[in-house]
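hey m, so remember when u said the tokens were messed up on ur end? i reran from scratch. heres the input so u can diff it against urs
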Amino acid sequence: MRALPSRFKYYGKTKPLMSVTLLIDLDDTLLINPLEKFMPAYIKLLSNKLAPFVAPEKMVPQLLAATDCMIKAIDSTKTLEQTFDENFYPVLGLEKSTIEPLINDFYQNEFNDLQKVTSIRPEALRLIEYAVSNNYTIIVATNPLFPQTAMRSRLNWAGFSNEKFPFVFVTSYEMMHFSKPNPAYYAEILGRLGWPRGPICMVGNSLKEDILPPSTLGIPGFWVDGKIEKLNELQKRAIPLGSLNEIIPWLETLPNPEGQIDLKTVQGVLGTLRATPVVLNYLTENLSESVWRNKSESQDLSVLELLNHLLDVESEINTPRIELVLSSENPFIAGIDSDPWIIERQYQTTRTPRVISDFASQRQNSIERLTALSEVEWMRPARHSFFGPTTLLELVRFIAIHDIDHIRQVYVLITAGFKNK
């Protein structure tokens, strides 16, 4: 039997099918880390390390500018590390190959001097112990603006050593393409997990970064140490807040969505659409030809067939419909049964894994068109033969839900493919 790749493994106990998926922030949630003290100390240490190659007065502003580029990143073809690199090294006249060993050494050594700025939260340790004992799938959803080494160091300071690591993964700039507060960041995390069907929640200390963005995907959040006076009346009814000690009772009341994803806003829909090509590329990376074409007992389509179906639907159904609604007054939209295309177009025998890049290119065109729309344009009406009166927003929401369904199918096929080896 071939071992399941690490990106499809859970750490610790075997997870039940309807396990709770817990996303949890790091700084000032799992670890007390006052950023007003941490960041100046961090910048000073890094400046000293790089001083032989670049003056601090030049390095620091560019470090902050490159970090800002990561925060604003929307390019699904680049990791945040790539975004940082192209906005940092060449601007300073540096070669990454020359500086990278020095930076790696910094994160292995000097960076750990910053532990004295932080302190452990015993209640965070108890919360994670509870989650592990209940077979939760736990992701450290920290803003991925640092390398994995820095994330692991801070988790070690928080009491979570590499030897006893309860998390499936920790987001970092090597692996992620989007950052907080972009909803695509959360969609990318969930896509990597195959868009879990059970309860999903987010716990964090920032309303702007941890609570509001995932809510656009229908994901409830608990605002750690939140201030109720900062919420409007609607938010007061929808957003629980309190200390870490109050989270466990809240977790025990989470409803089971039974696979339903409630994309509430334009931002949530666009975030899902942006993340889909990234997720599919991640899930299919380095797949063998046989796994691309494998089918399972529960699904009669292969990964290759599913992705080609996504591509053709995007180019021949989704794009024309969007243009029709934008160019016509309350147009009639006929339903199209695209399932026969799978056999008629012989996806399994005439197409190749290149479909990933073709789909990403087509999706990028759709996103560029949609991001330019006004609120009024998003609400343009249409009449659908299946759904009746609808709007452009609802039609695009259907596209995002269709993405999620296919990601789930691909995830099942890939994990089944490796288990059967």
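this time it looks ok to me. Residues 6-33+118-251 form a domain with the Rossmann fold fold (CATH 3.40.50.1000). if urs says something different then somethings off w ur setup not the seq
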